[in-house]
Amino acid sequence: MDASNAWPELDYAAGRETYETLHLLTQIVGKIRLSRTPSLNHSWHVTLYACARGLTTSPIPYGEGAFEICFDFIAHRLIVETSDGQRWHMPLRSSTIADLYATLMAGLAGLGVRLAINETPNELPDPIRFNEDRLHGHYDPDQAHRFWEALLRIDRVFKLFRTGFLGKCSPVHFFWGSFDLAVTRFSGRRAPLHPGGVPYLPDSVVREAYSHEVSSAGFWPGGGGIDYPAFYSYAYPAPPGFSSAVLRPQRAFFSTDLQEFILPYDCVRTAPAPDEALLQFLQSTYDAAAVGAAWDRASLECGPGEIGRPRAISAPL
Q1: What does pTM read for this prediction?
Q2: What is the mean predicted confidence (pLDDT) over 29-53?
Q3: pLDDT for 229-241, tens place per residue?
């Protein structure tokens, strides 16, 4: 096993077409999970998760058993495994989305998994139905592998950051609609009804997602007004003075266009201690939300988790 902690170089211009293909493929796989999974708060039931070889759905219920779909960015395969021991895969390679979609659905049917999904992509301008999309489909194995290597390192840091919070907190998970890895903390208080109007996303989904006050952070490889890989952080609702908070590292900034704090990925990748640089961004942007909105920090926060040592608990007052 390579124990190197070197963070991979990511180039949005070089990887853009591969990211577009993966965005669409993760939407297909995510919609398959969506079609078989009961709704959970804040759309947590639809997400994917970083794993040792790529991204996975986790087990998806089907009949009395389950199946799981995994993007393998080492062997560059899309793998389906079932709880009765069956296994099927197809290569991840340049093709059309329409052909890749047809191959996957036929592969599932061959395993006895028959289902239907909404074939129109979400959260994308000018969407093309998966079964008709012959425009997208470029796949560069090196770019896909680099993206996954970055996700693994970010997933590790996000999970460490998550341990310092006792309140409600999301898993670290990958949203295929927006193509980002994210983690979200909640104050425990209801938020004002979200006005909706998020492009290419139903208002009902947005309002349920932001039913409660949040401080959310994440990573995406570029696009949507940022033509480089970056970390982001935002609060809903944003408290007074949020945009002028003092952040760490120094190259973090507030984007007036996105209404979010942004830290370019390269600022973390090239830092002497990348994990610490990212933790500084996560903590300082969370502080901006929690202080500005007067969260009950004494009840919600704790020290970071340690391997092999349970959190010390004293008798209640």
Answers
A1: 0.96
A2: 97
A3: 999 999 999 999 9
Going from the C-alpha of 232 to that of each of 134, 257, 281, the distances in angstroms are: 32, 13, 9
Q: From CA 208, how far away is CA 203, in angstroms rounded?
A: 9
Tens digits of residue pLDDT in 165-216: 999 999 999 999 999 999 999 999 999 999 998 888 899 999 999 999 999 9
Distance CA 211, CA 190 (A): 6
Nearest to 20 by CA among 158, 147, 150: 147
Provide the token pair at 1: 């096993």
Cα dihedral 201/23/173/51 (nearest 10)? 160
Q: How crowded is residue 122: how many other Cβ atoms within 10 Å of its Cβ? A: 18
Sign of CA dihedral 305, 189, 231, 170: positive
